[in-house]
Amino acid sequence: MPREEHVFNPLALGPESEGGAVAGGAARGDASRAEGASGEALLELGLRPARLEEFIGQERIVGDLSVALRAAGGRGEALDHVLFSGPPGLGKTSLARILAGEMGTRLHATSGPALEKPKDLVGILSQLQRGDVLFIDEIHRVPTTVEEYLYTAMEDFAVEVPIDSGPHARLVSWRLEPFTLVGATTREGLLSAPFRARFGLFERLDPYPVEDLITILLRAAELLSVGLDVEGARLLAERSRGTPRLAVRFLRRARDRAQVAGRQTIDAPLARETFEQLGVDEMGLEEMDRRILRCLAASGGGPLALKTIAAVVDENGDTIENAYEPHLLRQGLLRKTARGRILTPAGAAAIGVRLDPPSEGSDQGRLFP
User: Pairing state of beta strands 227-228 and 265-266?
Assistant: First the structure.
């Protein structure tokens, strides 16, 4: 197939082309979503750190990114492509925004499921200027056909667009301005090896310790103009599963309760009242967590397949695996085996039941209420 090389100009594809239409539609969609954003969403954006030095926790990652930014800036180059992995709510999106801000460039955000066809990607690539950051959330869900277009875009800063079809088809290579791709994923293992190899920086975010969450909450309370004492902040932090997004969500609900009750400060008693209202217990377990544990208890402790649990608790299997299981596993309340999920004695105690010790050669026990 013959190749031609050009500097990327989306208008060269024609104003009626699908690629040009997608680019314009995406921009208008972003604008309309921004205009229609809820006050809660805008508030969350305002609470996010704007600079790397303001980012609390994840010291090793912050140090790595700081060195990479200074080195790339000194060379006058775009930052290497970055892959962030880890559970949801730990700051992957915030770090992508910070990287664009530190480099003084624009952030173009999308997600893996939104890139259904190569033309969707081409529409976004056509908008990139030198040094811009392209952020793809849930990057493990990028379709294979789109992923293959990203290979040359990431390595050679070029994209090959087929013109016509059949034996006389031409392949036109459009040169791109150097840019930085930042990918975020909760399931790094689902990325193909060739795709993963094209990233220069790999950073895995881990759950935050309580002390870091307290610092985050005190900063957020100051930005929200609400009083928060240290004991109240500690209680909020201890039940937040090591997740800043969840901690700030609890803070906002406690702020609502304080406002309605006419109280000026969120203290430990008010935080407890908030958790009682939300149904969050001392271990940070929510109702869905308890439903998962009760499902295992009802089957004698397991093992149960994820699809079975999802059907019983009426929740998507991916949501259970990505949003709920990590905390249950970290707390030692369930185990994952080749045969399925198993309730542990600690998990049984968390929902008020007791597990008999497993018989010899068995990986499960019998439950007695």
Answer: parallel
pTM, entire model: 0.78
Catalytic residue flag (residue 93): yes
Give the tokens for residue 157. Answer: 């800063």
- Topology (CATH) of 210-278: Helicase, Ruva Protein; domain 3 (1.10.8)
What the block records as the tokens of 263 is 């109280």
Q: Which CATH class is domain 287-368?
A: mainly alpha
State the catalytic residue, choosing from 97, 119, 196, 245. 245
DSSP string, 12-68: GG-TTSHHHHHHHHHHHHHHHHHHT--HHHHHHHHHS-SSGGG--S-HHHHHHHHHH
Could you say which of 186, 243, 274, 344 is catalytic? Answer: 186
pLDDT (tens digit per residue) in 271-329: 999 999 999 998 889 999 999 999 999 888 879 999 999 999 988 888 888 888 888 99
Tell me the C-alpha to C-alpha distance, in Å, between residue 185 and each of 138, 168, 170, 266: 5, 40, 35, 34
* Residue from 365, 367, 342, 335 nearest 354 by CA: 367
Q: Which two tokens stand for residue 146?
A: 């789109």
Is 92 tagged catalytic?
A: yes
Question: What ranges make up the beta strands (E) of 99-138?
Answer: 107-111, 133-137
Note if 245 is an active site residue: yes
**Candidate list 92, 97, 119, 196, residue with the active-site label:** 92
Segments making up each domain of the chain, as ranges: 3-204, 210-278, 287-368
